[in-house]
Amino acid sequence: MSLRFLPLLCAALALTLAAPPSEANAPNKDPKPSTTKAKREPKRETKRVVKREAKRELPSQPLGDREALRRFSAELAASDGFDEETLRQMLAKARVIPLVQRLMMPPPAGTAKDWAAYRARFIEPRRLQAGLAFWDSHAEALARAEQRFGVPAELVAGLIGVETFYGQITGNFRVIDALATLTFEFPKGRRDRSEFFRGELAEFLKLTRREGLDPFSLKGSYAGAMGWPQFMPGSWNRHAIDFDGDGRVDLINSPVDAIGSVAHYLAQHGWQPGMPTHYTVAAPVDTADRARLLAPDILPSFSAAQFAEAGAELSEGGREHPGPLALVELQNGSAAPSYVAGTSNFYALTRYNWSSYYAMAVIELGRELRRYRIAAKPS
Prior knowledge:
It is built from 18 helices and ten strands. The longest helix has 21 residues, at about 355-375. It is α+β, with helices and mostly antiparallel strands. A hairpin with a 2-residue loop joins strand 9 and strand 10. Helix 8 runs parallel beside helix 13, helix 9 (about 155-165) crosses helix 13 and helix 11 (about 195-210) packs across helix 12 (about 235-240).
């Protein structure tokens, strides 16, 4: 990292000593169905959580031969030309991981969401230092991605920082085990997502065959997300790009490919160059009006005029915004909630991880990185 950032980071450290200690968060990339609401704070796969859970972990078991596995192998062989017997024997060696099942469960009922505490886990000196070093090292690629896809460099840098602490924590589960567990033994007690993971397991096998990779060597999150940007296999196959020009897509070893792929993903999911992500807003005092604006969740559904009619007070920029807005509520534990008016670009960020808390963490980390870089420039 450039030495010019050190005085600024020392100041940041002094300001944050009283804040809750941040955790190095391993990537979740908890897959997000298009119909799922996004008000919950996303569960993060931290080293601390994994170590604590591992102490009471049941031993893993081979998946073994089973009817569902045979059907899966036959269908993939018929649709994509895999050798059915080879595929069946390989998948039977994958292991069912109880910890994966446990981490997939929702948080206990009544767990309070706290935006201020969630933010403090990401906007802290160590992550800022890593982010500034990342931006210094990859300034050309970030600028090129912004020019090509219209996604600001600060948001790409912020997203990779939130996802994997700039490649430091990319997950330690064998991806084939995680996906096989969630395909064939999805945990009971929450809505069944096994069909989604069945598709991701097929995408993973296509990916490893195409790239000549050993399916048993790749590691990722407990949900099967991989690399610097924590792409699920399907996202890797559909949206990852070769941005470093070496002729192959490598999200595990190439941060430049990760930069280009993140920007491409957001562009493919509706990012509009030049549009803000959100505006400040005072929510309506009337509970019925506030509830009406909150009903669509993070999906932008109301014009600025409709916000005003409901009693929401937008900033000047928000009042002039030509497109739809969403009233986004960020709960702060026992304190009063925070509100922002999210644009279509805020919604695009939530397509990466279906959570308004996540999107705001990405935005705020990127904003802080940009602020430090501007402050460090010679006058």
